[in-house]
Structure formats: C-alpha cells, structure tokens
Amino acid sequence: MLGLGTLARVAREVRLDVGAVHDRDPAARGVSSVEVLGLWPGVHALLAHRVAHTLQKAGVPVVPRVIATASRAITGIEIHPAAEVGDALFIDHGTGVVVGETARVGRNVTMYQGVTLGGNGFATGKRHPTVEDNVTIGSGAKLLGPITIGHGAKIGANSVVITDVPPNATVVGNPGHPVRVDGKRPEGPDADWIHLPDPVADAIRGLSGRLGALERRLAELGAAEDPEPQAAVRELRSVRGQNPAGG
Question: Which of 81, 144, 201, 242 supports an S-S bond with 120, CB 3.0-4.6 Å?
Fold first, then answer.
C-alpha cells in the first residue's frame, strides 16, 4: 500500500543518497543539496529507482518499467525496478552502470561508471550479484552471476568477477583474483586505484629475484661460461606516490 509512510521512507532514502554524494564526491564540496539533487545523474537514477521499486512491490503493472526506461534514457544508468538497493548508494558519473533484476546492493556502496551487476546465463531465479555493505566497485568492473561480494570489499577497475569475494578483500584482474591487503581493510569507500596489489606482477617479481640469485650462484661456482655479456634482470617495482584519493 502506498501512503504517507512510504513517501517518508522514500524521502529519507533520497536524503541519504544526497548525503553520500557530499561525503564521497570531491566535486560536490561546497555544493548545496538542492544543486546535487537537481544536477547529479546518479541521484536522479536512484530517485527514479526508489519510486519504481516501490510501485513494483505494490504490484503496479507497466509503470515501474516505464520509469526505469525513462531514467536510463536520461541518466545512462539502468537499474531494474525489482533490484534491491540499500541506503546511501553513490554512483559517480554513472554512464553505463547496469544493475540487474535480482541484484541486491547493501548500504554505503560506491560504484563508478561502467559497472555491471549482471547475470551469466539464462537461468531463472537469483541470477545477479549480492553486494554487501561498504563495498567499492571501480570503473568498468563486471560482477556476473549469483555471487556475493563481501562486506568492505574493493573491486578494481575493469575486473571481471565471477566467484564470491570474501569480506575486506581486494579483487583485480580478469578473472578477478581476491587479494588480502594487510589483513582486514579499513571500512568505507576507497578510490585509490593506483596502489592496488597485482598478483601477476608479484609472481613475476618473485621469479625475477630467483633467476638473478641462480645466475649469481652459477657464476660463483664457475658452472656457466658465457662469452657474451648477460642481460641484466630488471627488477619490477611497485607503484609509489601519493594516494590520489587523499589517503
């Protein structure tokens, strides 16, 4: 049933969505809530979804999909009316974001442009991801199938995730590789995409170190005689520098 209680709930959700923009978007610093509500496409998409989802749950036919279609045309963000979206979702820029029918998004989640919460087949039932609270999903990431992204996880840009992600983990690559970072990570959004761990580079770095040690050992033993100078093994280095997210 639609009533004052439902309207109050939608108004509260919109207020939290606007607050999420102020908290997590540097471009919104010093910008009024009215301006955010009027000019941020992520907020427009969420407002339309809150209304469409309420009508969908009330059993209203056709109208929820009409609202969702109009919202996609205006904002470039597609959220199925049946998708469950928690409070304080922040969609930055948002163009190309797709949230499927059976997706569930927790509280304080951050998504960047090009994110897809999609299915991986033609099965019915639960076929889209569940994203728990305080998750950050980088630009272009694809989360496919009925997987669960654990509390506080961070999905790197352009990662393709097809398996469950444990809480407080970082995922990079295609297919995505979960990597623990110093045990449990601090909660809250984190937009430092430069300093993500790279398991492939770590493996190559380890092999490079072992190769250099073996060559030095062989040279000491006189077991290898090569008249031509050997190419130096170039060490891989981690990206260093200031966190662009301000951390």
Answer: 144
